């Protein structure tokens, strides 16, 4: 392993980063928790760093805003309306 590889772990290579993301994913609404947990069970092993960044952006939303997006009661807008965030949202909606 080169020095640059040892100092800059991606989400997938760093168990601590993965644990932090799962902790941050915990929501106040049970419905959100269920969807996010199913998402992690299905996709966590294949998430790219771009996917993790998109998830983090979604986790910055309030529980109600996230629920509206997950249930397709509203669509992405503003700074969140990017192809990477839409891709992750689409995956979340499939679980």
TrEMBL record:
* Keyword field: Chaperone, Cytoplasm
Q: Which InterPro entries match?
A: SDH, SDH_sf, SdhE_FAD_assembly_factor
Q: Which SUPFAM superfamilies match?
A: YgfY-like
| Protein name per the record | FAD assembly factor SdhE
> What's the superkingdom here?
Bacteria
Task: Supply the PANTHER family for this chain.
Answer: FAD ASSEMBLY FACTOR SDHE (PTHR39585)
Q: Where in the cell is it found?
A: Cytoplasm
| Annotated family | Belongs to the SdhE FAD assembly factor family.
């Amino acid at each position: 392993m080169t020095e640059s590889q040892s100092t800059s772990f991606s989400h997938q290579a760093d168990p601590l980063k993965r644990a932090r993301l799962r902790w941050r994913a915990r929501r106040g609404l049970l419905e959100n928790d269920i969807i996010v947990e199913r998402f992690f069970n299905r996709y966590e092993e294949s998430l790219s760093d771009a996917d993790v960044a998109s998830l983090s952006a979604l986790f910055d939303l309030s529980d109600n805003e996230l629920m509206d997006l997950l249930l397709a009661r509203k669509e992405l807008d503003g700074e969140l309306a990017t192809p990477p965030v839409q891709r992750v949202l689409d995956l979340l909606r499939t679980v």
